[in-house]
Amino acid sequence: MSLPRIAVDAMGGDEGVRVMIAGAAEARRRHDKFKFLLVGDEARITAALESHPNLRAASEILHCSDVVGGDEVPSRALRRAKTTSMGLAVNAVKEGKAGAAVSAGNTGALMAMSKLALRTMPGIDRPALAAIMPTLGDNDVMMLDLGANTEADARNLVQFAIMGAAYSRILTGKDKPRVRLLNIGTEENKGFDRLRDAAAQLQAVTGLDLQFDGYVESDKINRGEVDVVVTDGFSGNIALKAIEGTARFVTDLLRRAFTSSIRSKVGFLVSRPATELLRHHLDPNNHNGAVFLGLNGVVVKSHGSATAGGVANAVAVAARLLEENLTHRISAGLAELRAREADVGTTDEEAEAAK
Amino acid sequence: MSLPRIAVDAMGGDEGVRVMIAGAAEARRRHDKFKFLLVGDEARITAALESHPNLRAASEILHCSDVVGGDEVPSRALRRAKTTSMGLAVNAVKEGKAGAAVSAGNTGALMAMSKLALRTMPGIDRPALAAIMPTLGDNDVMMLDLGANTEADARNLVQFAIMGAAYSRILTGKDKPRVRLLNIGTEENKGFDRLRDAAAQLQAVTGLDLQFDGYVESDKINRGEVDVVVTDGFSGNIALKAIEGTARFVTDLLRRAFTSSIRSKVGFLVSRPATELLRHHLDPNNHNGAVFLGLNGVVVKSHGSATAGGVANAVAVAARLLEENLTHRISAGLAELRAREADVGTTDEEAEAAK
Q: Are A238 and B242 in contact (CB < 8 Å)?
């Protein structure tokens, strides 16, 4: 089977064309079987491609001059879906001209366009936005939903768990990624009914390709003890931004501390390899590429401020999810869930009948 | 007016009596007009007081040998309110034998006992748990609710804003602390109806002793641009623990980085004053003492793992809130809110009549 193309919104993000093209070129070097559809201003894309003959040879350009603004409200962006680089990149997936779209533009607009154009997969009620974060363990951790929906009921949360586990199996290579629901305590009576219902369902249905370990509190997300953290879009967004903001806050404090005296400056220079290691570990470019799960097609959001290396990571996420057929894996997980739920149902009836 | 006593649950927390008594003694040195009611095992308290004659002279001991367990479910703890050190400390406030209670025990149990024994103040529907965090600015930031209630409607959120501002005026000395609602974006259409309704109310009612600045996202809590962050208990708990966990995560990474090579170790030693500064800034002992706001009496929760210095800070929070009459300030704020709401109402009616 030949691999589907990757559509790249070449205009989104803080730096636009140059960084997006350089990133796509680097990703293409890592995944050299892919072809690309580069969406945006043709003259600027052509100019940027001069430094990247390798990518040029594997790309088609889809011209448009219109771009979604960073602060543009989703409703306005939706009306301009047929003329903007973001809209056309997503539309290419809808029309089967690409298997995945990557954009560094406005998250709300990308979310709205993707939902409307691609629709949710059969068996999925709502899509979810998933991102990867570093941990103190050997594997990264994935969290979803991060804001595709403000709310989520028990049924949505169970579907998020299935989707997250499918993605995590690709990322980590684990047969049964460890899944937990985000809550404000680990006792059974904590949180909302919807959390308790989702936990009960995930506990009852055995044999899924995931290991459900109950709840996780937000101070333990990054300890390396969980692979997939499942939550609603509001709580997920709060947790993700709190983690990102605090990582920046502590490194800012550190920078101040290290520049507060000559002695500290000297210490900083001597220990530079150590602080570089820290910087590398926390650099969001190394975990770039949030994914909308549950749509008919792969959509990857790159950070607006990502470097070319960061964009390459986001494009590589799209490549990997296409190579490993994420959508098929999610479908299989949902079918398994339905079959196992039916089993649980039978067992209950039998138990009832045996009374 | 003589100051009310402070009841200290001497048994709660990881280390129990020794740390709690040492902490109370240090707080007493800073606030030397206060008297104390020390609740717990008399023999052990008496032994611990031998090192602190100053505190002994200002204290009465209320003996009990029973203690609430760290993992004890609140419902069980509630049934043992008359026999445990935590229950008796809270009860002393209820009976007017103390103005404030401080405990390092189980948060859920303390919350349940405090709500049941002390009840909410007139005009407050639900209490809220408020805590202080460091920022990059000159002032600390306070966030509430951190878990006294899982959910909060618009009316609760407005009351939290009033209570948080009253506490913040004491802490920061500002006439009008800057208040924001925690949300997943700063655009008006973000989040839940209850957030938009609370924002509309706080915007409409002018003349309160606070400055309402709209929404704040969780990555900007610690930038020093807001004094009081208002949210529901679920989101607040998620945000607080994500911040605490990430601060620990980054400092753990830092420690690993600094011990990864001889050169790094040398650098670490040279730059020690800088890393000490960082450690000091992030040490939770320096911001110890979460407060239950909105009850008929002050209840302060000390971290279970706090040092004597940390406990002293928590006891000092109680002392300061009694000295500055927090409860009276909250009542005044609520009266002001009602008066201003009436104004807004009158204006609306006048506008209606003028049509």
A: yes
CATH assignment of B1-119, given 3.40.50.1460, 3.10.20.740, 3.40.718.10, 3.10.25.10? 3.40.718.10
Other C-beta atoms lying within 10 Å of the C-beta of residue A150? 16
In the structure encoding, which two tokens stand for residue A320, read together? 């990997």
Does B120-294+325-355 match B1-119 at the fold level?
A: yes
Distance from CA of A269 to the nearest CA of B (A): 7
A253 → closest Cβ in B147, B237, B278: B278
Cα–Cα dist B320/B103, whole Å? 16
Q: Can you tell me the ipTM of this complex?
A: 0.89
CATH superfamily of B120-294+325-355: Isopropylmalate Dehydrogenase (3.40.718.10)
Architecture (CATH level 2) of domain A1-119+295-324 = 3-Layer(aba) Sandwich (3.40)
Are B263 and B180 spatial neighbours (Cβ–Cβ below 8 Å)? no
pLDDT, mean of each 10-residue run, chain A (355 residues): 87 92 96 96 97 96 94 91 96 96 94 95 94 89 94 96 96 95 86 94 90 96 95 96 90 74 64 66 85 96 94 96 94 90 59 46
Q: Do B261 and A253 touch (CB under 8 A)?
A: no
What confidence score (pLDDT) does residue A207 get? 84
Residues on chain A touching B150 (C-beta within 8 angstroms): 184, 191-192
| d(C-alpha A183, C-alpha A186), whole Å | 7
Work out the burial of residue A332: count CB atoms within 10 Å of its CB; fewer than 13 is exposed, 13-18 middle, 19 or more buried. middle
- Asked if B218 lies within 8 A of A257 by C-beta distance, the reply is no
Q: Which CATH class is domain A125-292+326-355?
A: alpha beta
Contacts of B237 in chain A (CB under 8 A): 184, 218
The answer for residues whose C-beta is within 8 angstroms of residue B35's C-beta and 6 or more apart is B3, B5, B6, B58, B59, B60
Which of B239, B245, B273 is the closest to A222 by Cβ? B245
